[in-house]
Amino acid sequence: MFGFGILLMALADFMARRKNKERRRCDICRQKFDTYEAAEEHRRKAHADVVV
């Protein structure tokens, strides 16, 4: 039973990391960035005319 908990925690960590990576892309052009803040800044500057 203990091993199952460890597997669930590893899966949760994996999914959280994957979700965070996905958020570091621009919504419009899908360009990758190092941080979420950098992606948001790019989106505001480069795609200011696009409304989502």
Quick take:
The chain has 52 residues and is an all-alpha fold. The chain has helices spanning 2-23, 36-46.
Description:
This protein has about 50 residues and is mainly α. The protein is about 65% helix and about 0% strand. The chain has one domain. It has helices spanning about 1-25, 35-45. It comes from Nitrososphaera viennensis EN76.
Please outline the major beta sheet: none
State the distance separating the first and last CA atoms: 45 Å
Structural class: mainly alpha
Question: Count of helical segments?
Answer: 2
The helix-strand sequence is HH
Q: Let me know the number of strands.
A: 0
Q: How large, in whole angstroms, is the Cα Rg? A: 16 Å
Fraction of residues in helix = 55-70%
Integer tally of domains: 1
**Low-pLDDT windows of residues:** none
Strand content: under 5%
Specify the overall morphology: rod-shaped
Q: Whole-number average pLDDT?
A: 84
How would you summarize the topology of this molecule?
Blueprint: H1 2-23, H2 36-46
List keywords for this structure.
2 helices, mainly alpha, 52 residues
